[in-house]
């Protein structure tokens, strides 16, 4: 797993989810025609900012670098009543030491990320996601780091916010998938041990790895005080298995070829896929980790809303240690 038919080609266009339907987003397939990764990210971010001003989300992130949403216990002296009048939401002013986020983007480049049932591979979508988030955070004056991994970390940039860093970041993302299996244990463990200051870790992967490994490593990150956002990149065909004709399937990680009758295999495959997906969601929920499924036909702007939501919740979710302590007591 994953297994792909040898005549693979990828995705159909999808629809934005939930309340974002009222906002017009660019089709990912159209965006991928922009070859320069930084330019692609810039187009997405500029479209996102433009969309916010025309949508019900106005007020959600326009003042993002200066404000955060009010939570019980905050000093009411710092509530911005003018912003409340415009947005009908309570925000408190953030101080300088609050606005500078330390963020690590972890991007999976294992062989399975090269899969596509249409024109966009999971890897191309994943690195565009990472580039978009890096560009957005850079504009917010946040320090952004990168770890590109397969079985181990192959590219690493410590978080920085200075001239030239974004260019190096984009260049590191250009590496094509070379590895085989997805090993989440080593890169997550290395990040947890390297980052001493609390920050945000954004994991971008198809998460085709044992649930036990994911649970252990994400739990370790949370126990060290990091906020974690998991973006699971999947091809639309992986969740629907639309294949109909018997044919040879190629396991992209092991290299094995199997002759499969989709009609006979569909029920078992979907049961295994859905079981794995449910376990991922449960693990992330238990650990206080934001978990988002990102099919490769999903508008990339939506993931910036996911990032904003995760950051606004920063520090609110109890850590893994806190949860464990409550269960023990």
UniProtKB/TrEMBL annotation:
<dbReference type="InterPro" id="IPR036465">
    <property type="entry name" value="vWFA_dom_sf"/>
</dbReference>
<protein>
    <submittedName>
        <fullName>DUF58 domain-containing protein</fullName>
    </submittedName>
</protein>
<feature type="region of interest" description="Disordered">
    <location>
        <begin position="1"/>
        <end position="22"/>
    </location>
</feature>
<dbReference type="Pfam" id="PF01882">
    <property type="entry name" value="DUF58"/>
</dbReference>
<dbReference type="InterPro" id="IPR002881">
    <property type="entry name" value="DUF58"/>
</dbReference>
<feature type="domain" description="DUF58">
    <location>
        <begin position="66"/>
        <end position="277"/>
    </location>
</feature>
